[in-house]
Amino acid sequence: MRINKYIAKTGFASRRKSEEYIKNGKVFVNGNKLEDLSYQVKEEDEVKIDGKILKIQKNFYYKLNKPIGYISSNYDPHNEKDLNKLLNIDERFFCAGRLDKDSHGLMIITNDGKITNKIIHPSKKIDKIYIVKVDKKLTAYQEKNFMDGLKLSQKEITSDAKISLIDKEKITYKVTIHQGYNRQIRRMFEYFKIKVIDLKRIKIGQICLDDLKDGDYKKLSKKEVEYLESL
After folding, report:
1. Can you give the residue range of the structural domain that contains 74?
2. Name one GO molecular function term (predicted).
3. Active site residue: 45, 82, 100, 127, which one?
4. For the segment 170-189, what is each residue's pLDDT rounded down to a tens digit?
């Protein structure tokens, strides 16, 4: 396995960052400084960076109920509420399916880059379901436009959305989308001058939030992991 890929798989750094470590003379293999970016790591090799032995991690998969106020990042020096404050995970991880700071609900947390890319790649068209409370109802005509597609910007055109009113008194909708534009659902309602009061994601593909409380997380079941691997 190529050295930059090996380092990335240990969770220490990305492939690009790994190459920087090599160029800066910080990577050692079997006690010798490594300079060859194309070096193929062998099973018996000991790889170190800054004195730390690197070993490939076993993949992990969690579902998290992200609370409002937390950003979808594992580290942000400018924000006190990143995901590291919620998760007792020492290893590098990815957020498969981000939520903005003002939204809450289901996120998938993993160190598996391939699975993350499968979940977020537009070609997979994975449905994501949200419960959305707003300040006023859409008209029947607006609902049709909502589902048919909206032009949010020159390069952002929505498609194949589904929407149904599930609580008339509280004006709450169930919304399904497969795209992942920045703050997409909020902007879709804003298109009709309707404000989103609360936005909660409850499902990504076949992965459900279930009864997880705010801030709680748990390992995905074997069946859920098999579903992700099948994507």
Report:
1. 61-122+207-230
2. RNA binding
3. 100
4. 999 999 999 999 999 999 99
